[in-house]
Amino acid sequence: MSSSASIKQNSPKKPLFTRFLDSVEYLGNLLPHPITLFALFCVAILVASGIAGYFDVAVVDPRPEGAKGRAADGMIQVVSLLNADGLELIVTNLVKNFVGFAPLGTVLVAMLGVAIAEYSGLLSAAMRGLVMGASKRMVTVTVVFAGIISNTASELGYVVLIPLAAMLFHSLGRHPLAGLAAAFAGVSGGYSANLLIGTVDPLLSGITETAAQMIDPTYTVGPEVNWYFMFVSTFFIAGMGAFVTEKIVEPKLGKYNDEEASEDLSNDKMGSLTAVEKKGLKLAGVAILVVSALLAWTVVPADGILRSDAGTIAGSPFLKSIVAFIFVFFAIPGFVYGKVVGTMKTDRDVIDAMAKSMSSMGMYIVLVFFAAQFVAFFKWTNFGQVFAVAGADFLQSIGLTGPMLFFAFILMCGFINLMIGSASAQWAVTAPIFVPMLMLVGYAPETIQAAYRIGDSTTNIITPMMSYFGLILAVATRYMKNLGIGTLIATMLPYSLCFIVGWSVLFYLWVFVFGLPVGPGAATYYTP
Fold first, then answer.
1. Where are the extended beta strands (E) located within 327-484?
2. Are 318 and 325 contacting, i.e. CB atoms less than 8 angstroms apart?
3. What are the pLDDT digits (tens) for 183-197?
4. Which residues contact 166 (CB under 8 A, 6 or more apart)?
5. Which residues contact 521 (CB under 8 A, 6 or more apart)?
6. What does residue 58 show for φ and ψ, rounded to 5 degrees?
7. Phi, psi for 414 (deg, rounded to 5)
8. What mean pLDDT do residues 459-473 have?
9. Which pTM does this prediction carry?
């Protein structure tokens, strides 16, 4: 027997879980960049539309006679774009598709305000004060909670909080990787939850609205439609993350030995808030109260100027303009803090902060260009409606139309997220299919979007395809020099499993048992 055959025979067989992770990593690495992926999807739709158009692929339109957009013959026909009319449609609408893509403007405007708060140092100081000011008894839940609310500020949680949490746990004599894992679970595993309406809300709602309009051209989905559920989810995930850290992850890691570190940790200390930073936070807090009071004055009174014509908050100018208020809510306190601590002395500093934020959005803007074309092509060809009708008929034929449908949907979204780590990229691909499909089964887009956010968030922490996974691994190896990607994923797996089960159960109880709306004015069921 050859030596190579002998080695192969004697080498231990990898555990099933390790082989699964290896397969995910391998498959994920086969996927091109999300931007390239959308470009390829556009080409695929063009070719598929030509083939389907040639064979006259069509389905029966389930909408009642006389409904807007319903064809006279009652059929939904696939429209080919591989002809002269299709070429004209593409070239004349290329720019319109891009600038009219619903999430683009809302996300950019919201980020301008967040940028002022971030670059002034307000968000970083607030996060440090929250984590470092927590009692030893509450430090774990505070770290997870801070991680969840940090997603309002883009990458701040990854860059600031996760290394900070590892240092905090180390300084308390606890395992630093437990602190890292707790923060990572909050920042990424609880990505969609938050107390405030952040930049992810308009990003997803814009895509959801476009998908919903394939079935109902007048349907609108605002950024606030998941706020109730995500507000409660913040505390739920914080508590669950703390439980997993203290009862599962930290006992498994055991007692930490500084000799495991890859560098000297004697100077591994955290800088406390300075007197001027504390003053800045206090005055920024006052600014937040003033801004909140002014906003409340426009909607709380029965005759509030930003209530709807009917005197209600639902459908009011306030909710329709929520992105503008996100901008104001972050920009004013951010400027006040920057003025106090000296990071924003003139209007030039404010402008520079917003400009830096926009420069960091370059990749997103390029992604949006191709995603917008993909969504438009999908709509023009009627593929979304055809798939939706066919999918809805299939679900009804197997009897999977009740609440259990959402458990399967959440699991599917979580699996896809293992290979497409971007929330917007995955939703731009899947929403045009599943939003219309589940609407035809009877569920509202707001509820569908809330379920998607659970699946998309809970597997972020176990996929190497997540954009910040390399950064997390680099921080972890500072404390454990021999730590590999498999060890990190295995450490985070208990969070992922507990989050997807617990959060799904919370969703089921919230929506189907207690019958609560997932957000202001959000419907649970869709009726044509």
1. none
2. yes
3. 999 998 888 888 888
4. 176, 177, 179, 180, 183, 475, 476, 478, 479
5. 222, 224, 225, 313, 314, 315, 319
6. -155, 160
7. -65, -40
8. 77
9. 0.76
